[in-house]
Every structure is written in structure tokens, then in C-alpha cells.
Amino acid sequence: MPILTFQSTGTTFLSQSNPAVNHSTSPLIYVGQFSGDTDNYRSIIQFNISNIPFGYSINSANLSLYIARNDVPALSKQINVYRILENYDINTVNWNNQPQIYPIAEASTTITNEIGTVISINVTTSVKNWYNGISKNYGFLLKGDETQTSLVGFTSANYPINTFAPVLTINTSKGTITQYPSETINTTNTLTGSTSIPLGTNFGTFAMQNTGTSNNGYVTLQLSADNTIWIDDLSPVMTLPSLEPGQSIILNTRGHMAYVRAAVQSVTAGQSAEITITPNIWSI
Q1: Exposed e or buried b for every residue in 183-213, given b needs 16+ CB within 10 A?
Q2: What count of other Cβ atoms lies within 10 Å of the Cβ of residue 108?
Q3: pLDDT, tens digit, for every residue of 7-24?
Q4: What is the rounded average pLDDT for all residues in the chain?
């Protein structure tokens, strides 16, 4: 099982007391509260994992941070890691324009009196979703305790000794890919499913192209536990992607159930589109 190590490609901290200032060249990054309710700090850490070969499985991923400062060692402090939802510039981002994050932390750890040591945070879910294309890799945003004095400082990507920079360690294994025959479906006014494929704990990748000449078609993936009742494999805030003639899209499964299929529908009632579907199943 190859173990891959990635050093951070960019770091910065966000200061509530200096909300318009960027700190992307700082040797340290901070989380928590320094001296009052309006003096909180958050940090952003970026990694580039694009050179992991296709067809691998992410078994585990851990974010390692070196603690260089711990202002209140008697206090138990939770460090939360959030998924960033939008693009930003690491060299200009600050407290005022900080990017939107998913509101629920995807990983966390608790420290008390640690100093001059490395902590490890399990970020497997986030890294799996980056690699599988389920979410985009905009990096991590870290928050500490913002209710009381609790400042913690970590060495950044700019720390003079680069071995102390944030590190992402990913344990991988090679999977196998099975390509199923392409299938072309003419859309109707309701969702029409393709031939179902066993999924289980594996991942599905569907290449979908509008091979027609005039009409648009909606496309999605659906999952089923019994090969009878199908559920759209979409986030509640997402809408069905639409393909114009000649356009294509890659859709990846987000969840795991016994079966998976593609489903297509006409965008305009009575105007059929031709959608060609090529499924691949990635087995771990």
C-alpha cells in the first residue's frame, strides 16, 4: 500500500482584529481567541494531490501540524477542520473575504498542553471526496475555541525549516476499473434509467454525452438497495445537470448502495435528447 506525503502548497491565517490584512507569508498560522471576543484567528491550509494516479483507493489521510505556540496550556481546546466550498486567492484572502465553508466540521482533534510536538488529524473523508471528484479541493479551514482565550499557533508552509510545515499523509492502494458497454437513451418527460450495475462499496464513474443534434437533456445518477426503488444520488442543494447537444459530463457516485444507474430526462417537454452513457466501476 503506497504511502504518499504532501507538504502544504500554501497557508495563511485570518485575523478578526486585522480583518483586511493577508498573512500568507507568515511563518506561523493561528487558531482560537487571543485577547477578547473580537480577536479570533482562523487558518487556511492548501494541498495539491492531483498527481495521485487514477484508479487508486484512499484508505486513510492524516493532516500533521507542528504546535509552535500554546497560550493556555491548562485549557482543553478543540481544533476543527472544515471543507472550503469556493475558490479564493491564498495571497489576498483575509478575515473580511474569507471563503464559505461547509458548516459542519469534517474532522477535529483536542489538545491541552502540547507544545513543540506534532498532532495528527484524520481528514480521510475530505481527501477521499477530493480524489473521487465528489467535492473540489479548496483546502482546509481550521478553527479553534473562539469563546475564550485559547490561541494556538502552528508552523506554516513558510516556516524556515520546511520539515516542520503542514503535511498531508495519504495511505493508498491500487484498485481495479471495469468499463461497461456504452448505452444510448432517448429522453422522455420523466427520468428514464439506464441498465443497472452492481455497486456495493465501490465507486461509479459515468461519462455522459448528449449525442443528439437539437435538444437538451437532464442527467443524473441514481442508487438503489433492491434494483427497484431508485434515489437520485445528488446533494439536496444540487439540481440536475443539463447537457446541450455535443456537451459531455463526468458524474461520480457520492453514496454506496447495492446498485447504480444513470437516469436522463428531456429539459423541454416533448423534445427528446439522445444521451450516450459509458459507465465505469472502480473496485477497491
Answers
A1: eebebeeebbebebbebeebbbbbbbbbbbe
A2: 14
A3: 999 999 999 999 999 999
A4: 95
